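Components:
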Amino acid sequence: MNVFTCSNSILNPKEKLMLDSNFFNRPTLEVASDLLGKVIVRNGVKAVIVETEAYIGPVDKGCHAYHFKKTKRNEVMFSCGGVAYLYLIYGMYYCLNFVTEGEGFPCAVLIRSVEVVEGLDTACRRRYKKEYSQLSSRQIRNLSNGPGKVCMLFNLSSAQNGMSLQTDDMYIEDNGISGFDIVKAKRINIDYAEEARDFLWRFYIKGNQNISVK
DNA sequence: CGTGAGATCATC
DNA sequence: ATGATCTCACGA
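Structure:
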């Protein structure tokens, strides 16, 4: 049973609020857990964030910007919180991150999984070139439970690297969704990161069906 | 310039 | 469990 159903009935229109840079310009672990239940709005799709991971460059061997290492790929992480960091992974997929904290302190939150609440057919077409009613149960189950999938259904690629999270093109809403339990866990697929492997910097909504790795 | 690895996904 | 697929970062 999903915490959120695929309908917008749980959203209370009176409580809508676009998150601004004050939200992102805070400690990354707080932002990562506070993002759960918030809604990404972009390109005809709205989706609730249900799983995130924090990456804190200065101290984190799992982060592209470990020890403030700056490269062409990760330079966006050094900007002030409130922009998107997108990069190509495994030659085929993209990952969406929200940059956090102040300028020069390279941190971000990876959006690992979402639950679509509006524009469901649009999202399905981008993932499978079919509408929702044509999907198999397996395709429905795998619609949005992974970082590469999030980028597909929101039409995101490296072209959006560095873009603001506070424009009509893309913004984050606080719809007042709360009342769920948050699970803290080890991050996924960073086996190379030595001691940072064991940091509990992955956050997800307990009981949600759209979690990437059980 | 060569090389290896990677914050993944779909299929076997 | 494995193949797909390619950019980036690094070292020679």
